Amino acid sequence: MFDSLSEKLDGVFQKLRGKGHLTEDNVKEALREVRLVLLEADVNFKVVKDFVAAVRERAVGQEVLKSLTPAQQVIKIVRDELAMLMGEGSDNALDLAARPPVPIMLCGLQGSGKTTTCGKLALQLRREKRNPLLVPADVYRPAAIDQLKTLGRQLGIEVFDSQVGQDPVEICEAARRYGELNGFDTLILDTAGRLHIDDKLMAELERIKTSLAPREILFVADAMTGQDAVNVAQSFDERLGVTGVVLTKLDGDARGGAALSVRAVTGKPIKFVGMGEKLDALEVFHPDRMAQRILG
Ligand code: GDP
Question: Taking every annotated instance into account, which residue ranges of this chain make up the domain SRP54-type proteins GTP-binding (predicted)?
Answer without folding.
Answer: 269-282
